[in-house]
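During the no-cost extension, the postdoctoral fellow (Dr. R.K.) reprocessed legacy sequence entries with the updated structure-token encoder. One reprocessed record is reproduced below for audit purposes.
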Amino acid sequence: LAFYEKELERVKPSTVKHYHALIHGALNYAVDKKLIPNNPADRIIISKPEAFKGDYYLDSEVLRLFEIIKGHKIELVILLTAFYGLRRSEVIGLKWNAFDFKHDCVSIRHTVTICNVKGEPFLKERLLEAREQQEENRKLCGRAYNKENLGYVCVDVIGNLIKPNYVSSTFGKLLEKHNMRHIRFHDLRHTCASLLLANGVPMEQVKEWLGHSEISTTVDIYGHLQYATKKQSAAAIEQDIVTPMVQNLSADAP
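Re-encoded structure tokens follow.
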């Protein structure tokens, strides 16, 4: 038990639970071979770890984030993640042929989504600028430009793919530098979902947007974030049930 408690200081509860399963199995083998009379691990109960709930930014924090990343190497990575709720590997693997700028849509995981901000294609404009800049960088660098990654969206000035670990570490440093509340890079995906739900987007559509195969997955992760739905339900109850009840009580009063 002391070993497990010590390990919990440096690893996740799920990892300690895995350690326990391995140790328990090894001691069971020792019992079967009559090396020890019983399994001492039988007396140790590892509680089920609490389900992890990701953090997320509010809309004001998202706007602040967009301000501080302007012109940064991972600006596009952050924008695409926040807008489309992409996983880190998905956004880094995104190619220009996924975008249909004529119809303002993008195909991700065989799902077509459309994104506008207050009617203005903010992300479209930024993407077109980035594509034009890539072409300029390619001309300027000549043979030094990495042509193996032609077609990818998230590359540096010489055409190298932006590495996943660089994205996560740099994101954290950016937040610290600008005194922003710390969240993980993956929490931008949670931020996307929370903003969709807060603006009344149905859970089924959030499922499609995020690319979940089952609605149960979306509900399990984001069910507690249905602010708009809960507010609408509360307003409906107040209007259709509570208010008439109060009015009837007032009318019956002597």
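The radius of gyration is 26 Å. The mean pLDDT is 83. The remaining legacy entries will be reprocessed before the final report is submitted.
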